[in-house]
Amino acid sequence: MGAGSIIPTPLRFSSGILIESSKAGKILLDIGPGTIEKLRKLGVNPNEIETVLVTHLHIDHVVDLLPLIKLRAYASDKRRLKIYGPKGIKEWLSLLITDQRLFGYLSRLGCPDLIDVHEKHSGSSLLNPDVKVSSTPVQHFGGIAYKLELGGRTITYSGDTPRDPKLIEFARGSTVLIHECSFPREKLFGKHTSDEDLIRIASEVEPEVLIVVHLYPEMEEREESLKRRLKDAFHGEVYIPRDLDIIEV
Fold it and tell me: For the whole prediction, is pTM greater than 0.70?
């Protein structure tokens, strides 16, 4: 849904990944601005999203969550939306939905009864009998990374983070590693991963498939070079997707 950063480019904007399988149903990893419109373009009904896994509460990862919740109030079947996120997401959502100075009208629409919110830090739980979700804290403003185990495959999603040995251990053995790569090393800014960092991460984790996301414009300029260097660093497949790209695993 979104393979870029908060700075829009012709190819990418914000963060959002749709996982779709017979075992998992439809799961969103983050839900940044524009996610709902991109679902429409792909012909996906937003009310069919069963679960949203939020890595952290920054605008480019979470801002379409309220519209997704509001849409539930207009749906005929009123299915509850499961929301997982870092510590503080319950209070954050409650404030937004109930405070009349903010979006308290959502309470009058019945939105609090249409969501099931879970706070995660570390550990594992079942999304459903066929899907296990694990999380671990990362070094990005209280954020967490996720690992999904489904259908004999493991998908690890870093969210935003600098290179983190704990996350590397968490991701080791993953079928698919979805990892951010925000900037070239010499332009690295904030708590993020550089191209040099990601090359080291890929060589240590050795996923079967590496999907590179959260590119800022500076990193887009080096996309082809990054792909070549990653292919030299480990034996798996490498994808650097654009918004609305579909990858089958």
Answer: yes
